[in-house]
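Dear Dr. H.,

I hope your travels went smoothly. While you were away I took the liberty of generating a structure for the chain from your last submission, since the lab meeting agenda had it listed for discussion. I wanted you to have the full record in hand beforehand rather than looking at slides cold. The sequence, exactly as received, is reproduced here:
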Amino acid sequence: MDPEIRRCLEEGSRRLEQAGIERPLFEAQVLLALALGVGRADVLRGPDAPPEPWQERRFRELVERRAAREPLAYLRGEQEFFGLAFHVNPRVLVPRPETELLVEFAIEKLAHITGALAVDVGTGSGCIAVAAAVSCPALHVLAIDRSRAALEVARRNARRHGADKRILFVNADLAAAVRPGTAAMVLSNPPYIAPEEIEWLAPEVRCHEPRMALVAEEGGLAISRRLAGQARRVLAPGGWLAVEVAMGQAPQVAAELVAAGFAQVGARRDLAGIERMVIGRWDGTAGK
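The corresponding predicted structure, in token form, is as follows:
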């Protein structure tokens, strides 16, 4: 490895460690790869030539941004989700592994149905809508967000993965724009952080991700409560609602779905063992 490359990695790793980054060397390698325009594997193999001055300046800039706790995904402009690469920027949440539960549930219930409609409420980067559409070739998806900027990101991701012909993007508030009784499933990773809890979050989330996509009133439950009521109207009989929730919220959200008339209500756990998704089947009257 070129001595200048080694020096950059050592200095970058040390700066990130001082800033409290958990994997400083790994992230220094990723950031140096970005600055050099190569893959991390190329950095690990050890470039033979030193970085150009402009590349070293770019690396130092990236290190300082990461030291300020800007998410690595935003610096890279990309995050993997359900085996697919998604463009991300500060207009959308960074996709997280636990949200893959929603896609898995959509596949479980809808993969065998031709022409079913799934509604992704609060689509953000489009990760749920796109991953579901890619995994279920006969599925149609209505992807809704109240942020026009987020929808631009979602459309870009749909085109990237060839799913844009089966996803309709709508700028609206929750599911209000959906025709009654038309959906086989409503999926959502809604805002569920209580306002008083925002300061407990990691600085990457608290200071950089869009607060509109994170915070909800009523102890973090305001949006999921509204969505449960709207889902009753848009789901066809036998359709499913699946909502991501924060740790500890599942029992209350499940009780509210039961009170709203949903059947087969339950919770599913993520890989950490946390009840992360609440589901319920609407067996009532379409459009009610």
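Two observations you may find useful: The beta strands are 78-81, 84-87, 117-121, 140-145, 167-171, 183-188, 235-244, 263-269, 275-282. DSSP finds twelve helices and nine strands in the chain.

With kind regards,
E. W.
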